[in-house]
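Hi everyone,

Forwarding the result from last night's run.
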Amino acid sequence: MLRPQAGACFALWPSSTVARVPHGSLRLGVFGGTFDPPHVGHLVTAINVRHALVLDTVLLMVANQPWQKLGSRPITSASQRLAMVRAAVADVPGLEAGDLEIVHGGPSYTADTLEALQRVHPGAQLFTIMGDDAAAHFYTWERYQQVAALSTLVVVDRPGNHVELPSGFDWERVEVPRLDVSSTDLRDRVVDGRPLDYLVTAPVLAMISELGLYQEGG
């Protein structure tokens, strides 16, 4: 598990998810999302990006208030989404749940998260991982230029479907298997009584059932 480097500043967004490594050696991927719920597509993406870019760790960073989705539908509490992500990655080497944005509170912006990680891990190389749709609309991100300055931009491509990316930035492309799994469909499946088996991990499925999540859809 990642822990802050010795001497790191804990006044800014302390987090239990972030580990002690030799100064300047960490290659850290940041894969942000709502994760409502986290599914196998998220895990396949994170695992393949970690392998392709030789990253030490990929943090599945759980958004506290996903500003692009606020008001569009009911969103499961941040603490429950974090618990599901922790359950999903518990036995996956190199993947960890990130709680920095939840600790910080308020709307979640990647630029703020990268600044916080930079302070906790001075000298680390940061990689911002995003899907092709998010990458195509990168200009709409809050302080997108700062995100590009603080990290390497990574876009996840599907086989045979490479989207046109905004110019003026250096992009790393990583192709991952196409898995047509969406959190929206998973929530609908709960409402309809359809199975979620193998679309989410067994611990996440158990948590959804135990907490009675997504019974009303959305």
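The domain at 27-180 is CATH 3.40.50.620 (Rossmann fold).

Cheers,
N.
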